[in-house]
Amino acid sequence: MKTKQASTPCLQSLEVPPHSCHTQHTQLGGTTPCGWSGLWRGSEPAVGPETRTSSSTLPARLSMSRGGGDEGGGGSSETAQQTEDKTPEGKLLDKLSTTTSSPGWTKVSCPCCESQRVEPLVLVKLGEKVRPETKRWLMRVIGAPHKDGGAALLAHPGEDATGDIIVLSAPRCTLLRATEELGLCKTYHSGDMEAFSYNDRDNFNDSDNMEAFLTLAERQYIVKYELDGLRAQRDLRIPGLPDSCTLQHRNNIWQKLGSAGVIVDTFPLHNPEQLKALSAAWYSGNQLAQPLDSVNSYFGSPVAFYFSFLDFYTWSLLPPAILGLSVTYFSGEAQKEMDESVSGSPVQSIEADSGPAVGGHMIQAVFSMLWSTVVMELWKRRSSTLSYRWGTLHLAERFAEPRPGFHGDLGVNPVTGRMEPLFPEWQRDVRMALVSVPVVGLFLGLVVVGMLGFYWGEAQVQQLHTDWDSLLSQALLYMPSVLHIVYSNVLATVYRRVATSLNEYENHREESAYETHLTAKVLVFTFFNCFAVLFHIAFFKQDVPLLRKRLASLLIVTQLVNQVTEVVIPFLVDRFISAPHRTESEDDPPEDKFRNQSTLPAFPGLFAEYIELLVQFGYLSLFSCVYPLTAVLLLINNLTEIRSDAYKICKLFRKPFTPPVASMGVWRIAFEVLSFASVVTNCWLLMLSPWLQELCQEGGLTGTNILMLAVLVEHLLILVKVVLAVLIPDEPDWIRKKIEHIEFTSMQALREQKLHSEKS
To answer: Which stretches are tagged as biased composition: Polar residues (predicted)?
Structure first.
C-alpha cells in the first residue's frame, strides 16, 4: 500500500476559510454535460473542465463540473456563468433562490484526469450537527493530492455546502495507481491477463476508459481504500470540532471522524440501470445459469465467489441425491427408518432386516466420503479459473498500513520505516490467552448445557408418549429438537457479537489477520454448536434411530428458520416499514435518491451464508448414511437459496464494499477439514450397523478386532482421499502456465524499473 506522507504542505494547510465552498457555483440547468443526469452513461473522454455547452442541452438538478475553485467546492468558471445569465434560462435561474445552484466537484490536479462527466460512486453521510466549516475542511482533505496528505478523490457537497452528504468519485490516475497497489491483473494489449503496472498503463486495454477498465465494485472499493488510508501528517485541529477531537500524528482520519460523529456512514451507491439488468438476468426469470461475470462486476469478487460456490455445490448435490433416493426406494430397511424418524418409535427390529438394505447404507457412506473430496478438488480448479478471469489471481501481499481499527503507541515500524501505531505481539497473545480463550470456552460450555437440556427433554417426552400414546404425544416427540435448534441459533447470534468484540480487543494490525481470527472463533463454536449433539448421539449413546430423527429435525427446521429470518422477515420489514419512507419518482433530485439508499440496512456480509453451507456440507458428508434423503432436502433448499440470496442482496440491503479476493479464503480449508472428518464418522456409523456386527461375530471377530478393522478401513479411505486430491490438480495446466507467465513478467518489470531508477 502506498505511504501517504508529505513534508509540506501537509494536512494542516487544508484548514480552509469559511467562505471556501461558496466562492463558485454551478448553475441548475446543467450547462456542463457532467451533471447528475446521465451520471451512469458513457465513458470518460479527456475533456477539460472549461468545455461547456448550451444551458438548454441537458436539464438537471445539479451540474457537477470538475473545474472548481481553490477551495475544492468550485463549479463553473466566471465566464461561463456570465454567458448563462444572458440567456432566458439563466435569468430564470437567478429568480429561483439558492436551491437552484450548488457547488461542484473538487478540482483535479492532474490534467489527464479532467473529464466531461463524473460518476458518483460513494455517499458519505454526515452527522446532523456537523458545521459547514467542518464539511469544507473534509472535502479539502478528500480532494487533496497524495503528496499533500489527501485521498486524491473527487468530492461534491450535494445540494448545498451545508447539507449532510458528500458524494465521492475518483479520477483516472487515482484509480490506476490503486489498481497497481492492489495487485489486480488486467488485459494486456496481447490479450493475456497481466499484473497491472502504472508505468506501463498505455499498453493495457481500455486504460483510458475507467468504466471499461475497472468494474463498478472495484472503482467503489478503491474510493474506500483511499479513505481508509488517510492519516494525519502532524497534530491537527479539525475546524468546527472541540479540541478533544484533535488529530494526532498518524491518526487514521476517517476513523477519528467516525468516532467524533462527523461521519455517520459511508456506502457505495447503486447503479439503477445495471442493478435492474442484473436482477432480470439473475433471479427474476426462469434461467438456471447465474450471470457470475455480471455479479462480479457489480458486487465484487467476494460475492461472485460465494454465488459461484453455491451454484457449484448445489448442482454437485445431484449425484448424492439420486443415490439417496435409490437407497430409500429400493431398500426396505431405509423405508422403515424413514417411518421411524417420523413416528419416533421403532417399526421393526433392525436385526431382522435383510442384507441388501444395509449394503445400501454402506454404499452411501463410502460415496459420501469420496464425493466430498472430489467436489472440493474440482471447486479449486473452478475457483482458480474464475480468479484468473476476474483479475484477482495474482493479488500481492503488501506491507499494508494498519487497518482503521488498529491502535497503539506511535512509533516507527521496523519493517516499513513508517510512523504508525505499534502494539506488542506479546500483549495480543496475553489478551487471547486470558480473555478470548476463556470466553470462547464459556460459550462452548453453554452448548453443553443446551445439549443436556435436550437429552432431559427427550427423556420426558418419550415417557409422555409411552404413557399417552396419542397423536399429541407423538407430535411432542419433536419439541426437544425444535427448542434446542432455536436455543442453538440464538446462542450463535449472541456469540457472533461477542466474537467480534473479542477480535477488536485483540487489536490485530492487518485486516487479513482480523478476518482470519474472527472466522476461526466462529468456526470453532459453529462446529461444536451444530455437531456436538450429533457426535454425542453417534459415538457415546450409539443410538442410530435418535441420530436419524435429530438429523431430520435439523434439516427441516433449520432450513425453514433460515429462510424466514434471512428473507421473509427482511422483505416484510422493507415492504411495510422502510419502503413507504423512501418512495421516489423520476423527477426527484438525485441527492434525494441517494439518501433513500441510506435508509436500507447495511449488508450483513457473507459470514452467515458460508456458515449455512458449511453446516449443510457437514450434515451430508458426516451423517448422510443414516438419513439418505439428506442430499435431496439440501438440493431443494439450495435451488431456492440461490434466488432468495440474490434477491436479498439486490433489493433488501445497501450495496456493500467488497475488496478483491482470489478465492473463498479460509472457508475452503474448513470444508476440506469436514471432508476428512467424514471418514471417521462414516466408519464409526458403519460399525454400529447390527448387520455388520452380526457378520463380524459370525466370523469370530471380537469387539477389539472389529475396532481395529474399522481403523484400518478408515486409514485406507483417507489414503484414497489423499490420492484423489493429488491426482486432481488444484488448477488447470493452462492456469498454472498463466500464473508463471504473470510472475515472470512482473519480475522483468521490476528489474527494468530498478535499472531505470539507477540510471536516472
So the answer is: 1-11, 21-30
Contacts of 341 (CB under 8 A, 6+ apart): 545, 548, 549, 552, 627
Question: Which of 649, 409, 196 shows the shortest CA–CA distance to 205?
Answer: 196
**Contact between 615 and 633 (Cβ < 8 Å):** no
Contact between residue 290 and residue 591 where contact means Cβ atoms under 8 Å apart = no
- Which of 275-279, 364-368, 455-459, 703-707 is predicted with the least confidence, judged by mean pLDDT? 703-707
The pLDDT mean for the chain works out to 77
Q: Is 265 helix (H, G, I), strand (E, B) or coil?
A: strand
Q: What is the 3-state secondary structure (H, E, C) of 240-261?
A: CCCHHHCECCCCEHHHHHHHCC
Model-level pTM greater than 0.70? Answer: yes
- Reply yes or no on whether the pLDDT at 662 is more than 80: yes
200: amino acid identity, one letter: D
- Quote the CA–CA distance of 121 and 142 in Å, as a whole number: 14
616/633 Cα distance (integer angstroms): 10
Arithmetic mean of pLDDT, 701-712 = 77
C-alpha cell at 184: 489486480
More confident residue, 93 or 221: 221
Mean pLDDT computed over 654-664: 91
Mean pLDDT confidence for 307-322:
94
Q: Tell the residue number behind the cell numbers 489478551, with chain if given.
A: 431
Residue 582 pLDDT: 61
Question: How far apart are alpha carbons 191 and 393 in whole angstroms?
Answer: 16
Please report the pLDDT score of residue 493 as a whole number. 87
Q: How far is CA 125 from CA 237, 257, 333, 540, 577, in A?
A: 21, 12, 63, 56, 21
Q: At what angle do helices 318-330 and 332-343 cross, to 10 degrees?
A: 100
The predicted structure's pLDDT at residue 399: 53
Confidence tier at 578 by pLDDT (50, 70, 90): low
Asked if 499 and 516 count as a contact pair (C-beta separation under 8 A), the reply is: no
**Alpha-carbon distance 208 to 202, whole Å?**
8
pLDDT at 176: 94
- In sign, the C-alpha dihedral spanning 734, 739, 745, 747 is negative
144/133 Cα distance (integer angstroms): 16
What are the beta bridge partners of residue 265? 125
d(CA 135, CA 131): 7
Q: Which three cell numbers stand for residue 651?
A: 433489493
Amino acid at 534: L
